[in-house]
Amino acid sequence: MNLDYLKVFYVTANNKSFSQTAKDLHLSQSSVSLQIKQLEEQWDCQLFERTTKKISLTPAGEILYHKVKKLIALMNETENELEELKGSVHGDLKVGASLTIGEHVLPFLLSDFSNLYPKVSLHLNVYNSGQIVEKLLNHEINLGFIESMLSYPALKQVPFAKDELIIIASPENKFIKTNNITIEELLKVPIIIREKGSGTRQVMEDSFRKCHVDPSKLNVIMELKHTEAIKSCVEAGLGISIISKSAVKKELRIGTLKQLNLEGITMQRDFYMIYHEEALKHTSRKLMEFISSRQ
What we know:
By secondary structure, this protein is an alpha/beta fold. It contains twelve helices and twelve strands. It has helices at about 5-15, 20-25, 30-45, 60-85, 100-105, 105-115, 130-135, 185-190, 200-210, 225-235, 250-255, 280-295; strands spanning about 50, 55, 90-95, 120-125, 145, 155-170, 180, 190-195, 220-225, 240-245, 260, 270-275. Helix 1 packs across helix 3 (about 30-45) and helix 1 (about 5-15) crosses helix 4 (about 60-85). It is elongated.
């Protein structure tokens, strides 16, 4: 029995796509198809129903899927127990984080973690929340960090830090001369915000609605996917923005941006660690313990 083939089968079953599996596992699509075919020949049964638009598991495929899921969990449990027995912390640790956390929160924590556990090889990539969930379910990453809670019963989510969204402007901006802004002014001033679907955008809109302010009334002149681009536009005086305080600590300190105080609306949220309990590695647990101890 080839464990690599079983992993390809498992990821394909989750993705319901040969092409997406090939992309996720950095294989050719023909290689994915060949490995599935070899498994089918080995057990003399069809594992997937194939149509031109999608694939789905056959009854035999369903049986194998649940067995492989248990096998992966057992392998991870065995690895964790052996690592605990040896008393060492080493190995690969693949982490996926959303933009704000990956760029402005985790780098400092991971640096200290690496100093404490130098034998752990860390790999950090920035994804959106949907990609993080997908990669956790496919066992492509070991641990995820997201900016708002998601509804995925198969995954556990634990808050690890508080965050606040604040209104920022250039000190030289021509719109608001004081350090305070009213709701009426906020709805008139040109504003640059994150794209729809981002955690920051969601928290901002939810906070406004709770205070009976319609976010669609904002004078949005630009939607951007990257925090750094938003900061640059605000520094250039194009408008104001609402952004994570974690992302502008340096700019506030050196004075290239300033915070505007808005009375009546607070925009707070939790950052979450998200993981697959059955697939949690020894190194992942150590990182979670380390981060929790720092809060």
